[in-house]
Every structure is written in C-alpha cells, then in structure tokens.
Amino acid sequence: MNEQQFRQEVADWMATHLVGRFACLKHRGGPGDEEAFPALRKEWEQELAAGGWVGLGWSKEHGGRDLPLALQLAFHEEYVRAGGPGRIGHIGETLMAPTLIALGTPAQQARFLPGIREGREYWAQGYSEPGAGSDLAAITTRCWQDEDGRWRLQGQKVWTSLAHESEWIFVVARSTPGSVGRDGLSFLMVPLAQPGIEIHPIRQMTGEAEFNSVFFDGAVTEADCIVGKPGEGWKVAMALLGFERGVSTLGQQMHFIHELQLVIDVARANGAARDPAIRQRIADAWVGLQGLRYNGLRMLEEDTGSTKVRPEALIYKYAWSNWHRELGQLAMDVIGVAGDVRSDDDALRRLQQVFFFSRADTIYAGTNEIQRNIIAERGLGMPRG
C-alpha cells in the first residue's frame, strides 16, 4: 500500500467512526483540554484499537503494525485533519510500551502490552518530585522489597498527567539506601488503585486539573513489576525519555496544524491579518511547521525502537517546543485584548490554552537548557561543563 492509499484508508475510517456519540470529541482533549469527556475518550481509544490504529510503530510480534515512520506521520496528519481528539492513552502507547518492548521481559510484555493496545489500561508517569524536576537524579522517593519479594514505595511524585484517569504509574525510585545521583535507582510499575496511594489534583489557573500529585505511603507492587534489574532505573528512565523526546510526540505535534489554522481563522475574522507584521509571523509559523515535519522524518526515520537516540534527533524536542511556544505568543497577539479574559468562544478558548500550555513545552522531558547541554555533549562531542 502506498502512502496515498493509506491516507485514504485513514480518512475513510475516521469519516465513518468519528460520528454519532463520538462527534462531540472532534478537536477536543489534549494539553489544556484533558478534562473533556474522559470516559468517552477512553471508549474512543477502544474504537481506535478495534480498527487497528493503536501501536502503529510496534512490531507485529508485539501486536503492532510495524509501519514505517512516514506512514505513522501520515496517520497522525489524517487523524488531525478529520478532527481526531487528543489521545488519552498516549503515555502507555508511545512511552511505556516501547520501553517494555526494548527492555522488558517476555512475561511483562505479555502482561501489559495487550491492555495498552486494546485501550483497557492507562498509564501515568512518575518521574518529577517537588525537589527533582530536570535534575531527575535528585529524586528521594524510596522503594524496598519485603520478605515476600514485593516492592513497597514511600514518597511523592508531581505533575503526573492524568494519574486520576490511569490504572498504572511507572515510577523511578531510590532502591539502594544511602545512594545519590544516578546510582541506586529502580524503575517500577505500580497499580494506582490501592490504599497506599493518594492522588491529589493540581488545580491550574484555567480551572482544569489534568496534573496531579501522587503520594506513596507503603504502596505495593509485585516483585516482577520492575523493568531491568534493581539499580538500573536510570538506564531505563533515560531510554523512556528518549522515546518522549522523539517519536512519541509525533501525534501531539500534528495537532499544531489545527492550532495554526485556528490562528489564521481568528486573524481573518478580527482583522489582525491586515497587520503586515502579523501576516509575516503567520507565514514564518507555517514555514517552521513544514520544517518540523521534514526534520522529524529525517531525524527519526531510523532506530524508532532503539533505546539510543541518534545525534540528529537530539534537536527535535528543542525545535518543536520553541516553535510551539512562539505559536502560543502569536495566538495571543492575534486575539488582542479579548485574550485577557476567559472566553466561551471555542476558538478563542483553545488558543488561550495553547498560550498557557506551550510555555510548559520547553520544560517537560528536560528543560530546553538541559536539551542544549545534551546537544552539546552528545551531539557535538563537547566536554561536560
């Protein structure tokens, strides 16, 4: 099947499935709008799974379609063009699953991959702590094994996206007493529905609460719910971050197309498009978006299942996060004073969300300052500062 035929297959499927009770999901969900119809979006994930649209890049051995990157990108473009909602299962599908495929045991793959692929189990990320953000090696959450081999956890994680909608959380915790830095960490998979865990929403200035603080007070997980060996948590965590900084963001970035079109539509409607400076910035944004697309294909076309990130791919997250932040600022400049108050207009509300949440793009998965260090050291071979 060539790319055009594949695009038509995706478009036809979306046209016949994103209708009826799912019609209200068009262009909903995603960063800043995660509280929109969570239960229905989970049903939509199962609809996608039944259609064979989950795990497109996974190997066929693990229940995926093993599609090349160009077709994965084509899917996301057609998905957004049809109004597909933000994916509530993306953490499991694009982060946890590739990590298990690369580093998990066959038993772990058999246990967890079907639930992700079928849209039955959802995952949250347990990395950041109040005193450990970009400096992940500073985490203090502890874990230890009981006599029966089960793991217990004590500590706190913050900024855990959609933990209140998830069944599982992957956690990096300190398993070696007295260890510091990257040593003595372990990577655990922990069920969230248990007495030893409390999930507290973090209410944002926009009113939503898609992020959470997760408190572990003697929380338990089974002995075999560890990826890698005890003490190898840093290696596993870095492998997962490689997926987060790379191919996992393809779907999210395709929504940038819709956001830029919203900016253009609002600029035409309110007259901002008559301002030459605004027109030039819109043109620059369009050019930048095309560059992101082609650079994404060039940088990520190989090693999509590898735990090592190619040097060329190191700039990917840095590039798209800066572009998106600038789009958010452009959106507010196009809206003008109307952007200073909460709006019931769908387009204005969405662009306000773009402005707020694009500021975080340069922070999560490693701040852009950290990204520049990584580019310098790993990509250019410069000495550590």
Please tag this protein with its features.
alpha+beta, Butyryl-CoA Dehydrogenase, subunit A, domain 3, 385 residues, 4-stranded mixed beta sheet, 4-stranded antiparallel beta sheet, Butyryl-CoA Dehydrogenase, subunit A, domain 2, Butyryl-Coa Dehydrogenase, subunit A, domain 1, 3 domains, 8 strands, single chain
Describe it.
The chain has 385 residues and is an alpha+beta fold. It folds into three domains: 3-88, Butyryl-Coa Dehydrogenase, subunit A, domain 1 (Orthogonal Bundle), CATH 1.10.540.10; 123-232, Butyryl-CoA Dehydrogenase, subunit A, domain 2, CATH 2.40.110; 246-379, Butyryl-CoA Dehydrogenase, subunit A, domain 3, CATH 1.20.140. It is built from eleven helices and eight strands. The protein has helices at 3-17, 38-50, 69-81, 90-103, 106-117, 233-245, 250-270, 276-300, 314-335, 346-361, 368-379; strands at 123-126, 142-145, 151-157, 168-174, 185-191, 197-202, 211-221, 226-227. A four-stranded mixed β-sheet has the order 1-4-5-8. A four-stranded antiparallel β-sheet has the order 2-3-7-6, with no helix packed on it. A hairpin with an 8-residue loop joins β6 (197-202) and β7 (211-221). The protein is globular and about 70 Å long. The model has no long low-confidence stretch (mean pLDDT 89).
